[in-house]
């Protein structure tokens, strides 16, 4: 951490799962704060406002201020306020938090296409159903600007991935046969660049659990990133990652923030207990040891397009666990 002056955390799958803190996360963030490193939280989840997120984090043992939290709901409302005249009607698909952000931005939340909305803003909400999606479809067909807070296909949970806003956006995409006009949240870089600007940070680090949002957003923003394996993206996903979705570092969880950078960096240096033999277009993993160290080592070969093989019992166990 000595090389960074700000850490921007994703929340779902990094700090907590739904409303339960991930083991070790409060302690890791507390240690980071004690060292004097600034922190921020950037979430695509549009179902809570910044003060509510900060209060929930504090209750979990992660002290946070509303000013440290950036949400896709707030960013979407700000964007609409820049594009539309004051008081313009906006059809809101999502939770009450998104509706409140739209209202606070000086716009008028509406519920039906008959109210001639100038825009439709769509974010995650656990109670979003067919009726409001139908109204949104009619409004977009009539010419309303369609803005999505984010397009995460899933949300992490203790029971496994659940449908996210991207799945709900897909309903309208299918009905309308087109994409949203604008997507505000990650992988767009705005949440990260705003966090860095507010903190006056010159060397920020992004921490996330999703390659297609957190890590891609960091790459787009030109920031280093740490992928933790406590949420959505799996080892198999990392091995198949395209260059625009490859993190700077990978760790099992937030304890990686306090490990030597070179031990976590990708492509990896030789890992204790593991050997990787590369011949032609294939690579064989032998030995045993830390699973994440093996994963970092395998990235070297996988990203070069080589086929991966297990040469020891421990390696075969990992391959089975990772569905390779």
UniProtKB/TrEMBL annotation:
Organism the protein comes from: Paractinoplanes atraurantiacus
UniProt GO molecular function: metal ion binding; phosphatase activity
SUPFAM superfamilies referenced in this protein's UniProt entry, alphabetically: HAD-like (SSF56784)
Lineage of the organism: Bacteria, Bacillati, Actinomycetota, Actinomycetes, Micromonosporales
Cofactor annotation comment: Divalent metal ions. Mg(2+) is the most effective.
Binding site for Mg(2+): 10, 12, 209
Protein name per its UniProtKB record: Haloacid Dehalogenase Superfamily Class (Subfamily) IIA
Required cofactor names: Mg(2+)
Residue ranges of every copy of the GCN5-related N-acetyltransferase-like domain listed in the record: 272-324
Domain of life, source organism: Bacteria
Binding site for substrate: 186
InterPro entries, per the entry: GNAT-like (IPR041065), HAD-like_sf (IPR036412), HAD-SF_hydro_IIA (IPR006357), HAD_sf (IPR023214)
UniProt keyword Magnesium, yes or no: yes
Keyword set includes Metal-binding: yes
Family: Belongs to the HAD-like hydrolase superfamily.
Pfam families, alphabetized: GNAT_like, Hydrolase_6, Hydrolase_like
GO cellular component, one term: cytoplasm
Active site location: 10 (nucleophile), 12 (proton donor)
Keyword tags: Magnesium, Metal-binding
């Amino acid at each position: 951490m000595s090389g960074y002056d700000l850490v921007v955390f994703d929340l779902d799958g990094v700090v907590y799962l739904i409303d339960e803190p991930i083991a070790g996360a409060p302690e890791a963030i507390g240690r980071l704060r004690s060292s004097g490193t600034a922190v921020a939280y950037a979430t695509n989840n549009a179902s809570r406002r910044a003060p509510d997120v900060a209060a929930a984090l504090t209750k979990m043992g992660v002290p946070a201020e509303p000013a440290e939290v950036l949400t896709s709901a707030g960013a979407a409302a700000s964007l609409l306020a820049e594009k539309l005249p004051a008081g313009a009607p906006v059809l809101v698909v999502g939770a009450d938090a998104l509706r409140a952000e739209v209202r606070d931005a000086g716009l008028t939340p509406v519920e039906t296409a008959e109210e001639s909305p100038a825009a439709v803003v769509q974010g995650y909400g656990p109670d979003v159903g067919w009726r409001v999606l139908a109204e949104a479809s009619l409004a977009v067909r009539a010419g309303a600007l369609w803005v999505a807070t984010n397009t995460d296909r899933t949300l992490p949970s203790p029971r496994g991935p659940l449908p996210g806003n991207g799945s709900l956006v897909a309903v309208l995409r299918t009905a309308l046969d087109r994409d949203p006009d604008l997507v505000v949240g990650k992988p767009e870089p705005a949440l990260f660049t705003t966090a860095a600007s507010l903190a006056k940070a010159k060397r920020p680090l992004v921490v996330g659990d999703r390659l297609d949002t957190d890590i891609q957003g960091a790459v787009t923003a030109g920031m280093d990133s740490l992928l933790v394996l406590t949420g959505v993206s799996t080892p198999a996903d990392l091995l198949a990652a395209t260059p625009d979705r490859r993190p700077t570092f990978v760790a099992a969880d937030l304890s990686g923030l306090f490990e030597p950078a070179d031990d976590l960096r990708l492509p990896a240096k030789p890992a204790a207990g593991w050997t990787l033999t590369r011949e032609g277009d294939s690579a064989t993993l032998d030995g045993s040891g830390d699973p994440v160290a093996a994963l970092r080592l395998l990235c070297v070969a996988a990203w070069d397009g080589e086929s991966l093989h297990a040469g020891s019992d421990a390696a075969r166990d990992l391959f089975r666990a990772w569905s390779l």
